[in-house]
Amino acid sequence: MKRRSKNIIFIFPVIISLLLSIFTAVDIFAEDDTTPPNTSITSKPPSLTNSNSASFEFSANETGCEFKTYLDGSWSGWSSSKSKSYSSLSDGEHTFKVKARDAAGNEDSSPASYTWKVDTTPPNTSFSLSDTTEGDNGWYKAAKGSLSASDPDSNNYHSGVANTYYKINNASSYSTYSTSFNIPEGSSQKVYFYSVDNAGLLAGKRWSSKLLRWLI
């Protein structure tokens, strides 16, 4: 019995020493974590959009990270949320950034970044007559219709005109405008037209300011 007791007394310090070595190794490993996380944007708005709101989702290659977000020059505080939304954005370019910080306090020194353009202003479209031959009392003997569309913007915020469309009277569908078109003969004609910009904004459908009457 005395011999067994000596063995227990001898083994116990060895176990304690091993446990202390393990805990020390863990502490050293934690203290030596100097590698910053990598941040990625996983969901974002289109590069050109007609919406003045935007939502982002992001992640890091380490678990337990916090995130700090940026929009147009202003950083937020740290948060565990992996998403961020904005509203009431002005027309023009916007830049979003996000960086992660891990549990050891290492920050991503190269934040993920994304720039996109907001265009909420539809283009302008105007109608004019060309090649007209006037008759009596405001009637025309011949005429062509012309359309002009613009997306004016001194700050380059707008996306530009994509297409212009028109139809005459109660045509079943609109045609894409490319050059002046003949106004068909009849007692009166009405030209409907509109334009769409590259952000997908549709200018309200309009029609010619006066009926185009023909001399029959």
Characterise this structure.
With 216 residues, this protein is mainly beta. The protein folds into 3 domains: 32 residues; 80 residues, Immunoglobulins (Immunoglobulin-like); 90 residues, Immunoglobulin-like. Helices cover 14% and strands 42% of the residues. It is built from 1 helix and 17 strands. The protein has a 5-stranded mixed sheet, with no helix packed on it. Strands 12-11-15-16 form a 4-stranded antiparallel sheet, with no helix packed on it. The chain has a 3-stranded antiparallel sheet with strand order 1-3-6, with no helix packed on it. β4 and β5 form a beta hairpin. It is rod-shaped.
List low-pLDDT spans: 25-30
What is the count of DSSP helices, taking H or I runs of 4+ residues? Answer: 1
Q: What is the mean predicted local confidence, pLDDT?
A: 82
Biggest sheet, strands in spatial order? Answer: 2-8-7-4-5
The helix fraction, in percent, is 10-25%
Rough outline: rod-shaped
Distance between the termini: 131 Å
Share of β-strand residues: 35-45%
**Count of individual domains:** 3
CATH architecture name of the largest domain: Sandwich
- Element string (H = helix, E = strand): HEEEEEEEEEEEEEEEEE
> What is the number of strand segments?
17
What's the arrangement of secondary structure elements?
Blueprint: H1 2-31, E1 39-43, E2 48-49, E3 54-60, E4 66-71, E5 74-75, E6 83-86, E7 92-101, E8 112-118, E9 124-134, E10 140-150, E11 161-168, E12 175-176, E13 181-182, E14 188-189, E15 191-197, E16 206-207, E17 212-213
Parallel strand pairs: 2-8
Antiparallel strand pairs: 1-3, 3-6, 4-5, 4-7, 7-8, 9-10, 10-13, 11-12, 11-15, 14-17, 15-16
